[in-house]
Automatic annotation (TrEMBL):
Domain of life: Bacteria
Every RNA polymerase sigma-70 region domain range: 134-181
Protein's organism: Polyangium jinanense
Name this polypeptide is given: Sigma-70 family RNA polymerase sigma factor
GO biological process: DNA-templated transcription initiation
TM region(s), chain numbering: none
Amino acid sequence: MERRLGNMVPPEDMRACAHEGLLEAVRTFDPTRASLPTYVARKVRWAILDGVKRERRSRRALSRATALLCAERLSLELASAPDDAGFSEDDHVSALDRLLEAHAAALALGLVSGAGTPEEHTSRAEMAHALRHAIGALPERERTLVERHYFQGEDFDEIAADLGISKSWASRLHAQAIQSLATAIAARTR
């Protein structure tokens, strides 16, 4: 995690957040939903990234943490989607292309929402414009989720409660929104 965050967060701060993640994992582990090592690793990573966001460190660290959380959430939701056994090789290649586009959009969304210095802002301006245009075209619930989570810093739990949906449904909406953003951005750059 230290390397993924660009060595911008002191290791002792990450350990403190990781400890909180471990305690949360112990309290909430359900063996019917995931294996213990996978669950603990996910909880610890998310606790560190949430800790970085909560502490509002440098804008670079914040944007990296936001981007990594977005990609993690997307991966988790996409991993639960069933694989069609009847897929041809071309179908698998197409699905992989869509997956890579979605991850690129997820990372870009996180990075753009945390852009800070004028240089960073300028280098990300084109991507930000494309993302904002694509976000504006999302269905209302998806747009609300993306805007409130990435640009207003609200937790999925809060947003889901306000929208009157479960956290798992919010995760599905998030994955759909990221897929839609990826498609829109890919079409715009071609």
